[in-house]
Amino acid sequence: LLTAPPARGQQPGRWRPPPPQSPLEKVAAQEGLSLAQLAGKWFLVGMASRCSYLAEHSYQLEATAVTVTIGDGQSLAVSTFRKLDGICWEIRQRYLPTQAHGRFLLKGRGYGGKVDMVVGETDHSTYAILYYQKGRSISVKLYGRTSQVSDAIKDKFEERIRAVGLSEDVTYYFPTYGFCDSADEFHILDGELQI
């Protein structure tokens, strides 16, 4: 029957659990990550996400290529080339380094617009598995230096997506042909890419 009085400002019987851990906090960044070796051209091979837009429009997936350059030795300048309605677009984004190696932040517009990104795994020359989190929603992308990767790499990707609570039914593989290499000046967007 002996109980301590409630702390000042706290109502009796009201215990607040700590905030839940963000899914991305459980993901380890690639050890020995070399940004210089990460630079260059990549092809989006697959993606796992609970994004409802992606689920509803998965039949419209377009071949997507990405060029990564390293700005100021630490940030990632990412140009994504993809077709929208048959026209090649370039979407430019800048991922800023955070305190932790291999973790980056894309500042978005408005509340909840930021995207956290972790380079989870890469051998720099064949594949890269990147994790993205916006709000409480996580997605995982598999990139290859070529538009097709080995079954062993796909298996590894599918293991990684299961580890963060995603599954094969929200995994999409992208076309391996019909890539854009460039976009004219009228089809360049700076900022967020929804998919």
Automatic annotation (TrEMBL):
<feature type="domain" description="Lipocalin/cytosolic fatty-acid binding">
    <location>
        <begin position="39"/>
        <end position="173"/>
    </location>
</feature>
<feature type="region of interest" description="Disordered">
    <location>
        <begin position="1"/>
        <end position="24"/>
    </location>
</feature>
<keyword id="KW-1015">Disulfide bond</keyword>
<dbReference type="GO" id="GO:0072562">
    <property type="term" value="C:blood microparticle"/>
</dbReference>
<keyword id="KW-0964">Secreted</keyword>
<dbReference type="InterPro" id="IPR022272">
    <property type="entry name" value="Lipocalin_CS"/>
</dbReference>
<dbReference type="GO" id="GO:0006956">
    <property type="term" value="P:complement activation"/>
</dbReference>
<dbReference type="InterPro" id="IPR002968">
    <property type="entry name" value="A1-microglobln"/>
</dbReference>
<dbReference type="Pfam" id="PF00061">
    <property type="entry name" value="Lipocalin"/>
</dbReference>
<keyword id="KW-0732">Signal</keyword>
<dbReference type="InterPro" id="IPR012674">
    <property type="entry name" value="Calycin"/>
</dbReference>
<dbReference type="InterPro" id="IPR043245">
    <property type="entry name" value="C8G"/>
</dbReference>
<dbReference type="InterPro" id="IPR000566">
    <property type="entry name" value="Lipocln_cytosolic_FA-bd_dom"/>
</dbReference>
<comment type="similarity">
    <text>Belongs to the calycin superfamily. Lipocalin family.</text>
</comment>
<feature type="compositionally biased region" description="Low complexity">
    <location>
        <begin position="1"/>
        <end position="14"/>
    </location>
</feature>
<dbReference type="GO" id="GO:0070062">
    <property type="term" value="C:extracellular exosome"/>
</dbReference>
<dbReference type="GO" id="GO:0001848">
    <property type="term" value="F:complement binding"/>
</dbReference>
<dbReference type="GO" id="GO:0005579">
    <property type="term" value="C:membrane attack complex"/>
</dbReference>
<protein>
    <submittedName>
        <fullName>CO8G protein</fullName>
    </submittedName>
</protein>
